[in-house]
Amino acid sequence: MAKKEEKELTVEEKLKALYELQQVDSKIDSLRTLAGELPQEVKDMGDEVEGLRTRRDNIEQEMKDLETQISDHRVRIENANASISRYKEQQDNVRNNREFDNLTKEIEYQQLDIELSQKKIKNFTADLENCQAEKAKTIQDIEDRTVDLNQKKNELETILSETKAETEVLMLRSADLEKHIDERLLTAFKRIRKNARNGLAVVKIERDSCGGCHAKVPAQRQLDIRTRKKIIVCEFCGRILVDPEMGEEKKRK
Question: In this structure, are residues 31 and 166 in contact, taking their beta carbons and an 8 Å threshold?
């Protein structure tokens, strides 16, 4: 038996279907936008926390290097003091003034080396203290931002779990509505939605103007729209126009 052809929709029925499809698709857009902003925020915050951890690791490495240099200069001071003691002992057994003067110069050199190492130890110690303070601040920043990150992650998970079921229901409704709209009209609807900044392809007349671009709609054109006898688009933005009462009818349903 041949399949019975589906009844052709009237223009008014097409407009109602288009209007409802627009409402459903706009809601889907809204849910996707809400969830779409948070993943980027979570990613950015995750990158920030990772950057802070890298900074902490670099500070710790710098602290190790400073501690090594401080330790090396302390050893250098110990060696210099040992050399001075040895040179002084040798001065007691010199055979002439020349040997004594040479040993004196060596002692002075070691003393200068000790002073230089002490100065460097002082500078390195100050740098180490600064690093310790910076490390403490960075650790606190990591803890604070991790708390914020976890809150954002929980918020994202909650939104995704809450919107998943609603989005799936809306998408099924959108697909069902599309079945009742002829292909040419549906193609035009999707094209207008794609080109429209806010995704609105079907808009109501609001205060005698297009609800999409707010361009003034002539009185005669508004009258034609209210009759729902033909599909009329905005002369300026190309959106499909419907009368304000259509929206109210949908709300009452």
Answer: yes
**Measured distance CA(247)–CA(18) in Å, rounded:** 12
Buried b (16+ CB within 10 A) or exposed e, 201-227: bbbbbeeeebbbbeeebeeeebebbee
Distance of alpha carbon 253 from alpha carbon 246, whole angstroms: 11
The two structure tokens encoding residue 100: 């004594």
Contact present, 202 and 22 (Cβ < 8 Å): yes
Q: What is the pLDDT of residues 173-219, one digit of tens each?
A: 999 999 989 899 999 999 999 998 889 999 999 999 999 999 999 99
pTM: 0.56
CA gap 252, 180 in Å, rounded = 22
pLDDT(21) > 90: yes
| Domain architecture of the chain: domains with CATH | 24-179 (1.10.287.1490), 183-252 (no CATH)
Phi, psi torsion values for 244, nearest 5 degrees: -60, -35
CA 142 remoteness from chain centre? 17
